[in-house]
Amino acid sequence: MAVNGCISAQRGTVGAFPSREMTAHIKLRNAGTRALNVSYEAFARPDGGSWAKVGTGRAYVKAGEEIGPVEVGSTTRVCAPVRVEIRVHARADGAAWSNWSTAATKQCQT
Predict the structure, then answer these.
(1) Number of neighbours of residue 45 by Cβ within 10 angstroms
(2) Residue-level pLDDT at 65
(3) Residue 22 carries which DSSP code?
(4) Residues 24, 86: Cα–Cα separation, whole Å
(5) Which of 8, 9, 69, 88 is the most interior residue, by most CB within 10 Å?
(6) The whole model's pTM is what?
(7) Is there a contact between 14 and 78 (Cβ–Cβ < 8 Å)?
(8) When comparing pLDDT for 89 and 105, which is higher?
(9) According to the model, what pLDDT value does residue 62 have?
């Protein structure tokens, strides 16, 4: 099972303040010969702070199938010059969690 994560950011506002809605996505590829039930989760961490879970999900991935990108979760932040990291990982039923797939963005870049 191959796991890739990515991040997208949409501009918005929170009241009178500009904001970014950052969304974690996951892409799963099953190169094996049998189908797998896969659990996945995403966490966000602004500027080296604590990791906070932003979403979870499950998918059934057939043998040889690739799915995604699938939205895992999102978080909205008021614009500030901080770096936000999002990480995702996955596991098939009965298997160990994959390594983390990470992505990062600096909020409200011009």
Answers:
(1) 16
(2) 95
(3) E
(4) 6
(5) 88
(6) 0.77
(7) yes
(8) 89
(9) 93
